[in-house]
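Lab meeting minutes (informal)
Scribe: AK
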Amino acid sequence: MKTLTRSQMHGYQATSVDKIKSTHKCALFQQCGLGKTVSALTAIADINPQRVLIVAPLRVAKTVWHNEALKWEHLQHLTFSICVGTPAQRLTALKSNAQIHVINIDCLSWLVKDSAVKPKYEMIVFDEFSLLKSHSSQRFKAAKALCKNIERVVGLTGSPAANSIHDLWSQLFLLDSGERLFKTVSAFRLQWFDVGYNQYTFKPKPAAMNEITAKIDDICLSMKADDYLDMPAIVHNEILVEMSLPAQEIYKEIRKELIVEVDKETIAVANAAVLVGKCIQIANGFLYDENKNTLVLHQAKGDALESIISETNSPILLFYTFKADLQTIKQRFPQVQTLQDNSEQKVKDWNEGKIPLLACHPASAGHGLNLQQGGNVIVWYGLTHSLELFEQANARIHRQGQTKTVIIHYILAENTIDSAVLAALRNKEKVQDAVFNSLK
């Protein structure tokens, strides 16, 4: 992979870096695809604190931050310790002299209350800051304790107020201890919300939005992708996920031996074409046995899709590969809709913004559908081998009449055939040959 240089960063990213450097406690409210990670890492490299804690969802903590640093020449000197796994593994990681510790957000309470090792941090970065929007959650309480004596705090999110501006109170409190939006959530509500009869609903007063945003404007940098992306009309975003260790072993064994046993079921491959299909299945999280029954292996791609959904304030067009993929998606995301039933009405509903998550197979949605009015975000849960279907599927929303930058996310299982498939598609090679070669 070619290393990028700092001069290749975009102007809006430089603005983000300057904001973090000049404002000791701040939030970047920026949509997916704007490169919040590289902006934060560049600021860390410039500020050069002795020790930094990055708090992120598990998948992001394990793969995203250190991989992003490897892409950039000016960030490769940064050192990372990934503090995930069992308590013993986390303790070992916390003892590391690495400049940056990355921890799963669900381990915050453990770090504050139960960890025998408590490093002193000069800077904390919260990735997906909106996961701390609940002021009564254990996550928030742990974050509050951590931030109390930290010099620099940065919050990153693409959806700071996905439900309501009520979500902002806890996030801002972690930055300024209530200086801007009151020290208690009760006072915040009293000032800007009408409380429902059940005491659980909070309707913003007419002036709430303008008044709240005016108060926090000095420490928040908000960017929408279509306003700030000074790049081509399509943004390609690769999201690497790590399969479970058992799935990794199954993948290695079937590649090497052309046969594997899973849940007492023996699965064999007859030729390279079958092997390719089995490797893609494993990357997606399952295997079909000899009777076409589905053997579930991991949930890594579902976890990544959940993160994308939480960070995206726009309808998502989701492409999948196998029927088993769709079944998994339906079970985990009951809001998903498909084009299988009443497709004409579904297309109409999509283009009117009524469907937040629309799942399609590229073979059924690759031609003839105009979906550009309904959204600008595509997610590839599993890739197709066909260059034609790939290009036509992306063209469903990247076409004349689309008014926003199109963001295409590719969920790729690390150390699998996924990256070879995407590289072949991108390079417009003969996809089958390139994929077969990658398995030699």
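Next up, CB showed the second protein from the same session:
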Amino acid sequence: MESINIEIAYALPEEQVILSLEVPDDCTVEDAIKRSGVLDTYPQIDLSTDKVGIFGKMCKLTAGLRNKDRVEIYRKLIADPKESRRQKAEMERKKALQDGTKK
């Protein structure tokens, strides 16, 4: 059986981890994550709910891997990005109105 070299990436707000490892060429995303040891280091990772991807493209845990793939484990979002942008735009609009009336 041949082997391939891959990376497992996981990021927190204050740190990023990229683990390099060699796995069998028939390894799935889930197998690679388990082999990497990242689940022992970061017990908050829950593969039943957290999304995963290869180079930024979401995939299933059963997806196969190719040489030099980077498997990424995505954290849950704390805030809805659309809502955050809407709130920021509203604050900027209010600030612009205030600045306009103070002149």
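CB comment: The chain has a mean pLDDT of 91.
No objections, moving on.
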